[in-house]
Amino acid sequence: MSLARNLLVATLMTVVTTLLLGVLYPLGITAVSQLAFRDKANGQLIARNGVTVGSRLIGQGFSKPGYFHSRPSATSTPYDAANSAGSQYGPTNRKLVDAVRANVASVRGDNPGAPVPVDLVTTSASGFDPHISPAAALFQVPRVARERHASESDVRALVSAHTEGRTFGLLGEPRVNVLELNLALDDRFPPSR
Amino acid sequence: MATHPKTHALSIWDPHIVRRASIDALRKLHPRTMARNPVMFVVEIGSVLATWRLAQGILSGSGHVGFELQITGWLWLTVLFANFAEAMAEGRGKAQADTLRRARTETVANREGADGMLEQVPAPGLRKGDVVRVTAGEVIPVDGEIIEGVASVDESAITGESAPVIRESGGDRSAVTGGTRVLSDWIRVRITANPGETFLDRMISLVEGAARQKTPNEIALNILLAGLTIVFLIAVITLQPFAVYSGAPQSLFVLISLLVCLIPTTIGGLLSAIGIAGMDRLVQHNVLAMSGRAVEAAGDVHTLLLDKTGTITLGNRQASDFLPLPGVSQARLAEAALLASLPDETPEGRSIVSLARETYRAQGPRFAEGDMTFVPFTAQTRMSGVDLRLAAAVGHGGSTTTLVPSRAIRKGAADAIDRWVRAQEGQVPAQLAPIVERVARAGGTPLVVAEGAEPLGVIHLKDIVKSGMRERFAHLRAMGIKTVMITGDNPLTAAAIASEAGVDDFLAQATPEDKMTLIKREQAEGKLVAMTGDGTNDAPALAQADVGVAMNTGTQAAKEAGNMVDLDSNPTKLIEIVEIGKQLLITRGALTTFSIANDLAKYFAIIPAMFVVAFPHLQALNIMRLQTPESAILSAVIFNALIIIALVPLALRGVKYRPAGAAALLRRNLLVYGLGGILFPFLGIKAIDLIVAALGLA
Amino acid sequence: MTLNGWLQILFFLATVALVTRPLGAYMARVFNGEPTWLAPVVRPCERLVFRLTGVDEQHEMRWTEYAVSLLLFSIVSMLVLYAMQRLQAFLPWNPQHFPAVAPDLAFNTAASFTTNTNWQAYSGESTMSYFTQMAGLAYHNFVSAAVGLAVAIAFVRGIAARERGTIGNFWVDLVRGTLYILLPIAIVGALFLVSQGVVQNLRAYDTVHTVEGAVQTIAQGPVASQEAIKQFGTNGGGFFNANSAHPFENPTPLSNWFAMFAIFAIPSALTYTLGRMTGSQRHGWAVWAAMAFLFVAGVTTAYWAEARGNPLLTSAGADQTVSALSSGGNMEGKEVRFGIANTALFATVTTDASCGAVNGWHDSFTALGGLVPLANIQLSEVVFGGVGAGMYGVLVYIILAVFIAGLMVGRTPEYLGKKIQAFEVQMAMLTVLVFSLVILAFTAVSSVTTHGTAGIFNAGPHGLSELLYAYSSAAGNNGSAFGGLSANTLWFNTTLGLTMLIGRFFMLIPPLAIAGSLSRKKLVPESSGTFPVTTPLFSGLLVGVIVIVGALTFFPALSLGPVVEHFLMQSGQVF
Question: Which pTM was predicted?
Answer without folding.
Answer: 0.89
